[in-house]
């Protein structure tokens, strides 16, 4: 018992002496000292009296998580696996085989191989089920289990067993892992006439470089107007958010400011270079999944009247997290400031730990004004409210029940049984009748013909998208998706007749 109590004392003493506790202790904070003594006593009692033996490290980590859990949703303790995944997202690369993978019908399924990776070179196809990894069945694997065993040091080998539709036996494939680079810009291309489209999926360390390359390419082939898609972009590095915004604003324009409790958190970030490609007309697409750095970009573009924002109100994740590395593979991520757009709007929308909206912001309903010639009204309260509100159409109950798995599986079977398909494929009445039967026979869904008929347009769009993905990969899927995307269609309608941003904004009147 004495040894355990000594260990507890050592743990608490280390907390008091190191880092933030040490600085606060030096300030002779009586309240903190009393609280730490209370914590020490509780830990000691658990260690000495709890009915089962408790590991000290587990106990302290649980206490840390509990403490941080009482704060906002973005302040977290990062253990080895969490910290490693964070580095993968920000570094935009990892050692692996190069596949997009998901759970389809409770089975590990390749959504698509990534172009130019070992998986593609080994002949992995979209729709392949990964039945074995390293000679072991994946029957009870989670997605996280699969990622853990498929990733590894570049140059090492991994054996997988593939269950491919139409093939009776498992296909054994040996793949040598390599560095897999995650694209921040998964697709860019012309959508019609002189209108280019570019999607930015995140703000990893390659985001600004890839976006510049995409914009250069589009403008070189004749684009004079741009649809910039930030939907479902959950953010990333502040530095990349500022550098992306830098492409569109004149030099020395304010991009974003941060304000927190300590003086070091008060910062302003300005555009460092002149706008790279002039003031071409631009529509920025956002939705409820646009967050963090994506909101910085959208907010600055809106405040400086550089482009028109279209879609749904963004998420409202407008806080700065500072990562403090505690050990080589452990860190604490702490919210240290809030982001403010150039007009002074706080991007952050208060949320409770479960992710729901908490109390109303003090800015709710407050009117701010853009900083360009139009001096337009924009609104506080957190998040970015689009200039043109056009949310996604809600799926009906039957469409939600069907789910993406059904389209994916049907497309895999259809492509395997119909050779020579091209990107001109159309889900006509015969295809839809096949899908009707597939849902009843293979998926065992019960529905009326009237329910199916009322959703045929939606079903056709999803089947065409999945088939295109199987034929031409991710780029093919994007081409088909954009033709049916109501927000992209609206952006095209706005951009087609205009020659300047002034004409574009005139459409708001």
From TrEMBL:
Transmembrane segments: none annotated. The keyword Hydrolase applies. InterPro entries: ClpP/crotonase-like_dom_sf, CtpA/B_N, PDZ, PDZ_6, PDZ_sf, Peptidase_S41A, Tail-specific_protease. Residues 85-151 form the PDZ domain. Pfam families: CtpB_N-like (PF22694), PDZ_6 (PF17820), Peptidase_S41 (PF03572). CDD domains: cpPDZ_CPP-like, Peptidase_S41_CPP. The keyword Ligase does not apply. PROSITE patterns: PDZ. Keywords: Hydrolase, Protease, Serine protease. GO terms for cellular component: outer membrane-bounded periplasmic space. GO terms for biological process: proteolysis; signal transduction. One of its GO terms (molecular function) is endopeptidase activity. PANTHER family: CARBOXY-TERMINAL PROCESSING PROTEASE CTPA, TAIL-SPECIFIC PROTEASE. Belongs to the peptidase S41A family. NCBIfam families: prc. This is PDZ domain-containing protein. It comes from candidate division WOR-3 bacterium JGI_Cruoil_03_51_56. The lineage of its organism: Bacteria, Bacteria division WOR-3.
């Amino acid at each position: 018992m004495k040894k355990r109590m000594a260990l507890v004392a050592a743990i608490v003493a280390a907390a008091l002496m190191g880092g933030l506790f040490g600085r606060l202790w030096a300030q002779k904070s009586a309240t903190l000292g009393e609280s730490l003594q209370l914590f020490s006593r509780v830990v000691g009692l658990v260690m000495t009296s709890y009915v089962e033996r408790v590991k000290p490290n587990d106990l302290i980590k649980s206490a840390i998580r509990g403490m941080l859990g009482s704060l906002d949703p973005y302040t977290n303790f990062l253990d080895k696996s969490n910290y490693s995944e964070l580095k993968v997202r920000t570094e935009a690369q990892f050692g692996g085989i190069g596949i997009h993978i998901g759970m389809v019908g409770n089975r590990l399924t390749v959504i698509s191989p990534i172009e130019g990776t070992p998986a593609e070179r080994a002949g992995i196809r979209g729709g392949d089920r990964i039945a074995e990894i390293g000679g072991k069945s994946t029957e009870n694997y989670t997605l996280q289990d699969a990622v853990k065993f498929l990733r590894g040091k570049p140059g090492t080998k991994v054996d997988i067993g593939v269950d491919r539709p139409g093939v009776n036996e498992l296909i054994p494939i040996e793949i040598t892992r390599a560095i897999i680079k995650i694209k921040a810009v998964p697709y860019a291309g012309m959508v019609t006439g002189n209108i280019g489209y570019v999607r930015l999926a995140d703000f990893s360390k390659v985001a600004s470089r890839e976006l510049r390359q995409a914009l250069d390419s589009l403008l070189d082939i004749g684009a004079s107007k741009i649809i910039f898609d930030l939907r479902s972009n959950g953010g990333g590095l502040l530095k990349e958010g500022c550098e992306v915004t830098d492409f569109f604003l004149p030099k020395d324009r304010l991009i974003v400011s941060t304000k927190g409790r300590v003086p070091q958190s008060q910062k302003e970030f300005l555009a460092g270079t002149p706008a790279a490609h002039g003031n071409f007309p631009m529509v920025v697409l956002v939705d409820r999944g646009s967050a963090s750095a994506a909101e910085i970009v959208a907010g600055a573009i809106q405040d400086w009247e550089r482009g028109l924002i279209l879609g749904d109100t963004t998420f409202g994740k407008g806080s700065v997290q500072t990562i403090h590395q505690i050990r080589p593979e452990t860190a604490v991520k702490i919210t240290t400031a809030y982001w403010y757009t150039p007009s002074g709007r706080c991007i952050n929308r208060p949320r409770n730990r479960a992710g729901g909206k908490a109390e109303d912001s003090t800015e709710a309903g407050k009117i701010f004004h853009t900083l360009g010639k139009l001096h337009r009204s924009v609104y506080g309260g957190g998040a970015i409210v689009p200039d043109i509100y056009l949310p996604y159409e809600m799926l009906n109950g039957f469409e939600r029940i069907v789910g993406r798995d059904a389209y994916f599986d049907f497309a895999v079977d259809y492509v395997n049984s119909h050779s020579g398909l091209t990107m001109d494929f159309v889900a006509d009445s015969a295809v839809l009748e096949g899908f009707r039967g597939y849902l009843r026979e293979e998926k065992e869904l019960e529905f009326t013909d009237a329910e199916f008929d009322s959703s045929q347009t939606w079903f056709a769009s999803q089947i065409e998208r999945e088939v295109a993905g199987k034929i031409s990969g991710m780029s093919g899927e994007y081409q088909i998706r954009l033709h049916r995307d109501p927000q992209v269609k609206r952006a095209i309608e706005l951009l087609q007749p205009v020659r300047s941003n002034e004409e574009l904004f005139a459409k708001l009147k």
